[in-house]
Amino acid sequence: MDVFASLGDGFAVAFTLQNLGLALLGCFLGTIMGALPGLGPSNGVAILIPLAFTLGLGPTPSLILLTSVYYGAMYGGRISSILLGIPGDEPAMMTVLDGHPMAKKGMAGEALSLSGIASFVGAFFATWGLIFLAPQLVKIALLFGPAEYFALFALAFATLGGVSSTNQAKSAFAAMLGLGLAMIGVDTQTGVPRFTFGEVHLYDGLDFLVAIVGLFALSEVFIFLEHRHGSADASSTQLKLGRLTPPMSMIKQCTPTMLRTSVLGFIAGVLPGAGASLGSFISYSMEKRLVDKEGTFGTGDPRGVAAPEAGNNAAAGGALVPMLALGVPGSGTTAVLLAVLLSLNITPGPLLFAQNPDVVWGLIAALFIANIMLLALNIPMVGIFTRVLMVPPRILMPIVAMVSFVGIYGISGSSFDLLIMIGFGVMGWVLRKLDVPLVPIILGTLLGNTMENNLRRAITIDNGDWFTLIDSPLSIALWAIAILGFIMPLIVGRVVRAKMHRRRDEEGVLSD
Fold first, then answer.
1. CA 495, CA 163: separation in Å to the nearest integer?
2. 193 secondary structure, DSSP code
3. Is residue 467 packed enough to be buried (19+ CB in 10 Å), middle (13-18) or exposed (0-12)?
4. Nearest-angstrom CA–CA distance, 85 and 105
5. pTM (whole model) above 0.85
6. By the 8 A CB rule, do 208 and 342 touch?
7. Which helix (DSSP H) or strand (DSSP E) does residue 185 occupy?
8. 73, pLDDT greater than 60
9. pLDDT interval class at 427 (50, 70, 90)
10. Which of 59, 248, 391, 447 is most buried as measured by Cβ atoms within 10 A of its Cβ?
11. What sign for the dihedral angle of Cα 335, 264, 41, 45?
12. Dihedral-angle region of residue 197 (phi above 0 means left; psi in -120 to 50 means alpha; beta otherwise)
């Protein structure tokens, strides 16, 4: 089959000393980033983008490094969830429910290793799903014209909040802000400067890498300075790791759970705006209904650890499918990876598989390699990763700031970009205090110009007739899904979020 021949070529690309070393480095750093409460995969990837560019890496090595960080952060999120009862990121929230009670029973090592195995199963399944599903989406995407692409981008913005969003209006505001920022610069059709205020440095528009590092990395520094300065939770030292590997009986008991929830999580990841949080929640909820006959979930049941971990890691892989095949990110982290691709002059979408097969298949092969590396790292090195939780913010945050400033200056050589980055950092800090999501801003900045160009092209082709935007069955279907995707969270999202938080609060895990 052509798929397996292409995958073989991908392994030939990935199996170089440089790429293997970058995958190992990304897995290690990603696990550390994921273990630190509050950082998560989006921030972890954003923080390390400057490193990839400073090292002068090409497209494939850069993606291998950053996707390894992505997968590693998804693995690492469960460390603080299990040991401290504090989710490393939102998808790891459900892992707290049974992971932390297992740790308090002296089974922390078993819980950590079991979660690593479940993460491996979920990510492994998702990578195979990416192999077979993405090329099929490419065939569909070749039917897209300018009007259909405009509708597709509108769908991405409409569904970005997802059911886990606390406020659809704030998500819409963030998307509009991102689109407004994308308008800065010289209009490519008329040559008229827009919103530059006479500043020559803005004629080329805003560099979205600068925006990403400022919004995610620097705003995280400001948040730490405001709330967590000088603190270091030492509670992890009060828990004994115990046995580092789960018994075979536990793995056998959890295997059906891992397989079922991998499928659910992958589907949740492919859906625009759903993401790993929903994948984790529905995986845990389904398993609780299917197998929790004795009411052991929430008291330290291993299946309650395996279910959300397999689900959220499968969702992380699933989110790569629309990003690579359609050029539309399925999650916040894939939006950051999309920015990396665009900065490397590679446009994700239908033509990516034909024009840059070495990048795509090298990346997919590297996902398999990174997944195996993560399993090999996470079981024997559990003790080392847990010590990362003891790193005080006064040491960690200056390192994050240094990487951000040195990396951005190394990319552009412009002190003006450093000022812009600080501005985005302050803006990100303010928006996070107001609970305004940052990912729609990034997506608007990334896709704004392309969305505008497709709108202009579609209307120009049809002599100024705006009805061309709903002139084909495909575009009508995309608009219908976009409207439904924006309205449904308003109806069911409140119920889903209430169940997620009520289930967490009923167990009382986070307060222990």
1. 9
2. E
3. exposed
4. 13
5. no
6. yes
7. strand 185-186
8. yes
9. very high
10. 447
11. negative
12. left
